[in-house]
Design a protein that fits this description.
Layout lengths: L1 E3 L2 H8 L12 H12 L4 E3 L12 H11 L1
Parallel strand pairs: 1-2
Length: about 70
């Protein structure tokens, strides 16, 4: 099982609200790539306040798309 936090996305969402436009927010894509390479059967994601509503739901949709690919 793997796990990671969304602290960088959290900071960019609640701080300056740049999300993936902020380099801190792009850490997620590296994590998604690693999960895919390692074929991890399970992983944990940190709960981030306002993640589902950030950028009118677009940020969460991108995360879901990458994790289900």
């Amino acid at each position: 099982m793997n796990g990671f936090t969304f602290i960088d996305i959290f900071v960019s969402i609640l701080g300056d609200k740049q999300g993936f436009e902020d380099t801190r927010g792009t850490l997620f894509f590296d994590i998604a790539r690693i999960l895919k390479q390692k074929h991890s059967p399970a992983f944990l994601l940190d709960n981030v306040k306002q993640l589902r509503s950030h950028d009118k739901g677009k940020t969460f949709a991108v995360i879901q798309e990458h994790l289900s690919a």
